[in-house]
Amino acid sequence: MYRHAIPDIELRTALAERGLECHLLVSDGDPRVFAVQLCAVLEGLLRDAYHKDLTQECLIYETWAVVIGPPSSDRPVACATLSFSCGYPSFFGARFEAVDPQLQRQGLGRLLFDCLVVWCRFLVFNDVLAKEGVVASGGNYCLVSYIDAPEQDEWESARDNPQGHGAFLRKLGFAPAQHDFGQTEDEIAFQRAFQVTVQNLENEEE
Asked: Do 64 and 1 form a contact (C-beta atoms < 8 A)?
């Protein structure tokens, strides 16, 4: 598993002021091995945040993970996994988002999503499949966040989660999904759209 330090200087500085760093975790080959490695890194934080046990099978389809934590510790205080799907628009799906319960409501969730935005753009320019997918999508792509849907009898009043995590996502520029992003009946998807110039992407290949 490879770890890449976030390339954005402003975010790196903002995190350093809190004694934190952000890294992108990338598989070095076998996705099943990566799932085991991710589980070892994320399970403690996700258990504290959601009181649920994480298994490697939960992570088998996750391609990357963004983690924020102190330089001296292997355990992150915030995380999210990322995967990429081609289509129109192409999109990065963010799942298993978590912030240490003791650090919530301190701006760390916003920093996590700021980092996700930076990493998505980094992958558009540096990952072959992501680049090809975004070029095929005319330079358009979305960052998609998935949250749990309410109970069915509460669906009409809470389908967009206006009082919960959905309100937080709206503050970050997200809107309820207008496309099929693979969300299940138990999920609500929120999207934030981005665009890059296709010519710039193609020039990167020359």
From this structure: no
Query: Has this prediction a pTM greater than 0.85?
Result: yes
Residue 189: beta bridge partners? 146
CATH code for position 164: 3.40.630.30
Segments of the chain assigned E as strands: 2-5, 21-26, 64-69, 78-85, 90-99, 140-148, 175-176, 187-195
pLDDT (0 to 100) of residue 157: 46
Q: Which residues, in sequence order, are CB contacts of 160 under 8 Å at separation 6+?
A: 166, 176, 188
* 3-class state of residue 189 by DSSP: strand
- Total domains in the chain come to 1
| Burial classification of residue 183, based on how many CB atoms lie within 10 Å of its CB (0-12 exposed, 13-18 middle, 19 or more buried) | middle
**pLDDT, tens digit (0-9, with 9 covering 90-100), for 48-93:** 988 888 888 989 999 999 999 999 888 999 999 999 999 888 999 9
Instruction: Identify which of 121, 82, 106 has the alpha carbon closest to the alpha carbon of residue 15.
Output: 106
CA-only gyration radius of the chain, Å: 17
Average pLDDT over residues 149-155: 58
Q: Which range of residues forms the domain containing residue 68?
A: 2-204
Amino acid identity for residue 189 in this structure = A
| Residues 131-147 pLDDT 10s | 999 999 999 999 999 88
90-99 vs 140-148, strand pairing mode: parallel
Beta bridge partners, 21, equal 69
